[in-house]
Write a structure and sequence with these properties.
The complex is a heterodimer of chains A (104) and B (233). By secondary structure, chain A is mostly helical. Chain A has three helices and no strands. Helices cover 63% and strands 7% of the residues of chain B. The chains are: A mainly alpha (104), B mainly alpha (233).
Chain lengths: 104, 233
Amino acid sequence: MSDSHSVDFKSYVRRCLYVFIAVVCATSLMIGVSFAPLGGWTIKVAIILAIACANAFVVAGFLMHLISEKKMIYAVLGFTVFFFTGLMGLTIWATHDMPAGSTH
Amino acid sequence: MEIPYTVQSRPDTGVYNAKIGIWLFLASEVMLFGGLFSAYVLLRVGAAPGEWPHGWLNPVLGTVNTLILALSAITTLLAWVACKVGQFGKFRVFHACTLALALTFLCIKMYEYHDKLIHYEIQLTDGRIADGHMIENNPKDEEIKIRAEQIAKMENYGPHHNTFTAIYFTLTGLHALHILGGSLVIGYLWWRTAKKCGRRNRNDSPTASKSPACSGISWTWSGYFCSAVLYLT
């Protein structure tokens, strides 16, 4: 949470209210998509993850004050994103690496 | 000896020690949960079509828990703002709300676990399978009685039941431990402020708001983000 700017309690309450409404809308949308007849499992997961990313941006940006953080924090997060992408990407890449002759 | 940059920001990085510490901690948390989620993805994608147990979890409870944690992230933020402007009474009220919400979350989680642990799959000696909750005197559901000699195998839906319950209990259990740990930290901050409340004044707020700032960042991450991702699956 940023410490560099002055604090107005009422504006924070208003900001929190907007963020909470956004979270409720995003959660409702994700649940709606998970039950909607949209075809395959892959499409649903892609849409849900896209909504979750937008939701995460709002929460991290406004509740954790990430939009007004210092470069040092962005650098730490940049490395985290790099390693997390590698972790998930390599896992998914290796999903179908099955030894010859083996089955599920 | 005084440790430098516990309150004032370092001139080169612009952040104080605790803040960089908490972000490094969260980076390690991302990798911890990332390892478990990559295991989940591997299990989910590797499951034969139609065999992944979809719909075993209650989406209503999941939604309520997600909203509870979102609300607790907001009360934590408001507690920090109250501390920053020197309104320590409001700080205690908002942190008490956070603790109450965390307790509610844990109670719902315990209810979910209990529901899984009293849910049994019983393989009978004639090859049939009986599946249901072991509840005595429940008028709402159909009751069946099975003799002990008819049972070939009996197992509840605990972590050992299959790979889905294993990863479910591991992920949600670790998440619940984070909530418990975070509650202890917030409880300590609440208690410390309550103890010193009469002696604090507005000039204390820059120093006093550092701990709630860091615990708030960590709580928002551990509480809200993990929950949102968990219930997606």
